[in-house]
Amino acid sequence: MATLYTSLATVATEFLQRPGLAKSTRRSYELTLMPLLQEYGRSPIEILTRQALQEYLDGLTHLAYTTHHRHQAILQSLFNFAVEQGYLKANPIARLKQRKPEREKGEHQTDEVIRYLTPEQLNLLYRLVDSDLRMHTLIRLLHRTGARISEILSLDLAMVNLQEHKFQVIGKGNKRRWCFYSEDAAQMLDRYLRYDRGAMFICGV
Asked: Which segment of the chain is annotated as a signal peptide (predicted)?
């Protein structure tokens, strides 16, 4: 049974530690849930209303609609888990409509299969840029954060939190958001800053 004032962070931790969850899936879920937990992690899960979660999802304007759908699906799974474990009586975002594609952003619905690079293709890409420290760092950050290339190229060191492996970008509508990166990307970034550009970032001045 749920205890009084169980925080969203507590439930999310249990959700991520479920047996049988693949390591890569767990890491993907962690990165997806991180912004939500930063905003509401300490809040009792039972006070998170449909409106609050809708506003949170509406605020993810930097995401393509397909990625936005994935974020919403993970949130749905999290709150379904909370119901199954007795923390909630009902999922607050059950049957919530998904965001529609925005034509002004060049988005459109399609039945085409989205193609991703295979692990072998990614490894080949990394090998091809291995001798170019700047390009290798850029590719790894693009891969690990999901940030736009324009956002990374305009980044400067003041926006980067090296200890917590995250950086701020300014997206559409001049909205700031945090992007989180993995340990391997952190190692490449450290090498780049130390041996290539000193105190500067990719295109920082």
From this structure: none
End-to-end CA distance of the chain: give it in Å, rounded: 55
* Residue type, position 29, single letter: Y
Q: Mean pLDDT across the chain, nearest whole number? A: 83
The architecture CATH gives domain 8-111:
Orthogonal Bundle (1.10)
Specify the 3-state DSSP secondary structure of 172: helix
Fold topology of 119-196: hpI Integrase; Chain A (1.10.443)
Please name the amino acid found at residue 25: T
Gyration radius (Cα) of the chain, Å? 19
Residue 111 has pLDDT above 50, yes or no: no
- What residues contact 32, with CB distance under 8 A and at least 6 apart? 70, 71, 74
Residues of the chain with CATH 1.10.443.10: 119-196
pLDDT tens, position by position, 28-46:
899 999 999 999 999 999 9
How far apart (Å, rounded) are the C-alpha atoms in residues 145 and 180? 6
